[in-house]
Design brief:
mainly beta, Porin, two-stranded antiparallel sheet, elongated, transmembrane beta strand, signal, OMPP1/FadL/TodX
């Protein structure tokens, strides 16, 4: 009888629909800058605002297209290896995941002009990679658990699995749910994320006066995101032995063993924005560039799936039958991005530096959620996020009497969270090699990044995963002039 009641309740929940909480972390996932770019630009630390003389101009400064004198095709392939060393209640673990994608292809067409230059470009750029993973396993001796967290919200999942029970007043009116679980559980799990953001872009650039160039790019953004979390709570210490009922009215809930939860989020991502750029040749050695990215206006089509079960030593298991599924659509707008850069070239050596300003507190939920959730999310964004200055440095040295160029760079991307220590800033060292013949260029790039991160399974700092992240990107690029 108990199982039949659970199934009926689950069906009624599906009929009514289940609200999934979207929050400021979801908005940041869309907005935070990444390092994905072409091979030459990445190997120079993405210090490209004052260079941008290949198809990567669509990402950094579209005015750079006006420097290109020959029609060209650009393409590149990116491999991303993400490794995460975690610490969870003094236990350490390591988990990694790789992804290989075609991250750039495009064509550039200069047109004959009476004076100056006019250039059009069309193509594809991947600009964000969601490759991420973490695994953890440890005994939480505290008096907390996800079971208790779910119960505190009167979440029906705990009830459906025999982990909590309803409390009524003397008039048999429902008051709240309660659980007899009080921590002391082994907690383990793993999270795997994958996906990307990309844009199809149309760019135009021209020389508006001698050595002064202006450019614009229209981006049609697409992408996908998938997050798969598996989570277990187990009574390995026998704190809830035979005869101890989690539901005093149900003998089948004796001798609790395991609670398992699997939740999967999928996004279909679409947006658009403009990139505007200005580039000036100050003299024969010095070039300066300025660029603005307008806010991306995102529409997110989300699907959410939850499956769960519980096992008891009585031989009984309870399942969500059927699993919970939900779909919704909402809108988020990202902040403006302002970039300035300079490049100095002399005797085959190029030095470049960029600074980018992003005020993450300008991220905004727009529509699709109820008004209270939108207002609460936007208040959280204002409270937790601040302004950052991303720094990029790069160099390139063309070896005399050869067609070979050596490259290197450094990237600093401060954490968007206010008052985060510097350990949480993303730092990258980049290296690269280029071979340039008359019509064909081949470029190789490598970027090694590292930073710290944290993640809470529930609540705040009661079931926290401390993470040491390293990320390695390899890019192979090809440019053909025709």
């Amino acid at each position: 009888m108990y199982k039949k009641i659970l199934v009926l309740v689950a069906l009624s929940l599906l009929t009514c629909g289940i609200s999934v909480a979207q929050n400021y972390n979801d908005a940041l996932r869309l907005s935070e800058a990444d390092i994905i770019s072409g091979a030459r630009s990445l190997s120079m630390g993405n210090a490209y605002t004052a260079l941008s003389d290949d198809f990567s101009a669509a990402l950094f400064n579209p005015a750079g297209f006006a420097l290109i004198k020959k029609s060209q095709f650009n393409g590149s392939l990116n491999y991303n290896l993400f490794d995460n060393k975690s610490e969870f209640f003094n236990n350490t673990d390591s988990y990694s995941n790789g992804a290989t994608r075609l991250n750039q292809f495009g064509v550039v067409f200069p047109f004959p002009t009476y004076r100056g230059s006019f250039v059009l470009a069309l193509g594809y750029n991947q600009f964000k990679d969601y490759n991420y993973t973490v695994r953890f396993d440890g005994y939480n001796s505290g008096n907390n658990s996800m079971i208790q967290d779910l119960t505190s919200y009167n979440d029906d999942i705990a009830y459906l699995l025999g982990l909590s029970y309803p409390v009524y007043d003397n008039g048999d009116n429902y008051l709240y749910d309660e659980t007899r679980v009080n921590g002391g559980l082994n907690q383990s799990g793993k999270i795997l994320q994958e996906g990307k953001q990309h844009n199809w872009s149309l760019s135009a650039a021209l020389e508006i006066q001698k050595d002064l160039f202006l450019g614009i790019t229209l981006n049609i953004v697409g992408g996908d995101f998938r997050r798969d979390r598996q989570y277990w709570e187990e009574d390995l210490q026998d704190n809830y032995p035979a005869g101890f009922l989690l539901d005093p009215a149900e003998p089948a809930t004796s001798d609790f063993q395991t609670f398992y939860l699997n939740d999967i989020i999928k996004w279909d991502i679409s947006a658009w924005n403009l990139n505007l750029g200005l580039l000036s040749k100050v003299n024969k050695n010095l070039t300066m560039g300025f660029a603005v990215k307008t806010p991306r206006k995102y529409t997110i089509k989300e699907s959410y799936f939850v499956d769960a079960y519980s096992d008891f030593g009585s031989g009984t298991s309870f399942y969500l039958d059927p699993p919970i599924e939900n779909r919704l659509e909402y809108e988020i707008t990202t902040p403006y991005e302002f970039s300035a850069g300079a490049a100095f070239n002399k005797n085959g050596l190029t030095l470049a530096a960029d600074v980018k300003l992003i005020d993450y507190s300008q991220i905004e939920f727009k529509s699709g959620l109820n008004r209270i959730d939108i207002e609460n999310n936007n208040r959280d964004i204002q409270e937790f996020f601040g302004t950052v200055y991303n720094l990029n440095f790069g160099l390139e040295y063309k070896i005399p009497a050869t067609n070979v160029a050596l490259r290197g760079g450094f990237i600093l991307m401060p954490s968007p969270y206010k008052d985060d220590p510097s350990d949480y800033d993303k730092k990258y060292v980049t290296l690269g090699l280029g071979y340039d013949s008359r019509n064909i260029s081949i470029d190789l790039a490598y970027a090694m990044g590292w930073w710290k991160d944290i993640g809470d399974n529930y609540g705040s700092n009661v079931s926290r995963i401390y993470q040491d992240v390293s990320r390695n990107n390899f890019v192979l690029g090809l440019k053909y002039n025709f």
